[in-house]
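Margin note: ligand = glutamine.
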Amino acid sequence: MIEKSALEHSKALEKGEYTAEELVSSYLDRAKACQPLEMFNDLDVDRILEKARAADKRRKAGKAFSAMDGIPVAIKDNICDTEEKTTCSSRFLENYRSPYDATVIEKLKAAGVILFGRTNLDEFAMGSSTENSAFRTTRNPYDPERVPGGSSGGSAAAVGSMSAPLALGSDTGGSIRQPASFCGIVGMKPTYGKVSRYGLVAFASSLDQIGPMALNVEDAAFLLSHIEGKDARDSTSHPYADKYPTSGTVKPMTAKDLKGKKVGVFFPQSEAGFDEAVLKSCEDTRNWLEKQGCQVVNIESRLWQYSIPIYYILATAEASSNLARFDGIRYGTRSKQANLQEVYVRSRTEGFGPEVKRRILLGTFVLSSGYYDAYYNSAQKARRMIRAEYLDFFKDLDFIVQPTSPTTAFRIGEKAENPIAMYQSDLMTISVNLGGVPALSLPLGADSEGLPVGMQITAAHFEEDKLFRFAASLEKDFAPDRSALLKKKYS
Ligand code: GLN
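Resulting structure:
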């Protein structure tokens, strides 16, 4: 059952081929077998079964809420759900319960979706490997000695190991796409403003987006179509989110559609830092595009090389002010101290991990009066130029294709001591967030050890449907075979 796609489950539930209870039970069994991968901060088996039974009752009475009724979706543990703890994998919020549901959670509940566990992440979504979680290090389903990527590593490993058919992640600089690429699944960051951020614990608000993670392109579209939309509670959600709704089904582009499509490729030659297997996947992609009669153009960006420094100024600046609310008074863990100042200082000292502290310090520095213009203001201007460059690219191009990450999944501990090396792994994904455009990572090839490679496809603002259709046509020829993975035993 777990080899089927979410859309297939939807049809099977509709036809009564199996029940939601049987469906979630098979995923619960799989999640149990994959427990050593440490994907979940919490997986409430009894409640999941109870919700599945309720879904079955509704369906039997002809009152299913939506096509997603009874389908399980795993949720990254930084998206607020009143029925669960929202920990952000931080000591600070170890026992935190949100008083409200995030808009995406509200929507999924209204659709009858079974919320399937809280997935692990780098603390407050800061990281690229899930090693920054205060609670556990999630492991890669293809090789448990390796990271699943991050920060949505728990969600990626859950879907990648087929412990859940779908998951939500959040993406500020690559946190959906990079782990999707490491775990051999599809992960998509929608256009900024497509999905409400209300109830997503803020990291860098001008970059954060919630998005779908799935085994294939169509399932990702299916999930996105249920979470998107303008939301009065998030002023940055965009009216176009309603005006151009995502279609829940995806028709791959035909030979006729593909012919003449102008695709900008940004494929590194043999620069240091790019794995052989990644370069090979670039070659395969280029050949495929040419075979379809696409017009392939090598593009150069004057600016992408600056995206990592720009991002680490803006994202840390926003994080330092967003995380100021964690003062030990209103949220989370309060250190027992005699005076107020000490409560602030000790709560933050004890509650935050080292990477979060590093970011708060950096962000506070770039916002400080003597350095504001030199760093924060300059980075804002440079960001504007990156956005302008994307607008320019898409005057002419239909898509941009480039590898999602320079490497396949790295070893646990390999980059943990070297923040710069860790930051470099987001080389390809960060400019997308700075530009606000949508992008998707598609599994395309593997290295000699069977570790998946991901290819990133970017489209113009709000062209999600076009992006999905194009990705689905590539997927027809490159979809990974997951049969060996299913036989893997974890201990
Ligand atoms: N890896 C990047 C960082 O550490 C991006 C994280 C994200 O997208 N949430 O900030």
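The radius of gyration is 21 Å.
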